[in-house]
């Protein structure tokens, strides 16, 4: 999706309705800065208000996501382009999430090992050591939880038997034997267990 084009279109439609940025923002209980970001193509309107926004601007959601009024002659073409853009956007977001997973994992390990190092090599009271170990362990678990949650939802797993791509349950990912991002899981399509690898595209 061309956010710059969409932003200009929102501004154009707002002006047609004789609304200022502040007046439009007030109708959705947001700041005029948020509307300004839409119109500059920096952010998109939240999905929770998109239908109401389109109704107010007297356009369709398809018009909004296309950045122009879609006519019947180019409706199918625009619809397909929007779907392709959304898929591309999801893939880009999933890539960023998987990088974040690595960062979280490294950060969690540094914290855990740092706390262990402090308790092992510094002369501090036993109760302080116990607290540091507990805090380090808890932070490590929290980091692991968020890392696995990201890995579960970002992208897909591809079955090693039938090639089916799917998003597994959190428990499936958590308890699966794995090597990096390749996990031994049961495919929901062919119901066979195999090593399923993480992929971005479906």
Notes on the protein architecture:
By secondary structure, this protein is of the alpha+beta class. Among the domains are: 68 residues, 434 Repressor (Amino-terminal Domain) (Orthogonal Bundle), CATH 1.10.260.40; 48 residues, no CATH class. Helix content is 63%, strand content 10%. Strand 3 and strand 4 form a beta hairpin.
Listing every helix as H and every strand as E from the N terminus to the C terminus, the arrangement reads: HHHHHHHEEHEEE
Main beta-sheet annotation: 5 strands, antiparallel
Report helical residue fraction: 55-70%
What's the total number of strands? Answer: 5
Radius of gyration over C-alpha positions, nearest whole angstrom = 24 Å
Oligomer: single chain
Shape: flat
Q: What is the straight-line distance between the termini?
A: 19 Å
CATH topology term of the domain at 3-70: 434 Repressor (Amino-terminal Domain)
Strand order within the widest beta sheet: 2-1-5-4-3
Strand and helix layout:
Layout: H1 3-16, H2 21-27, H3 32-39, H4 47-57, H5 61-66, H6 75-121, H7 126-153, E1 156-158, E2 165-166, H8 170-175, E3 177-179, E4 182-186, E5 193-199
Brief rundown of the structure:
With 202 residues, the chain is an alpha+beta fold. The chain has helices at residues 3-16, 21-27, 32-39, 47-57, 61-66, 75-121, 126-153, 170-175, and strands spanning 156-158, 165-166, 177-179, 182-186, 193-199. Among the domains are: 3-70, lambda repressor-like DNA-binding domains (434 Repressor (Amino-terminal Domain), Orthogonal Bundle); 155-202, no CATH class.
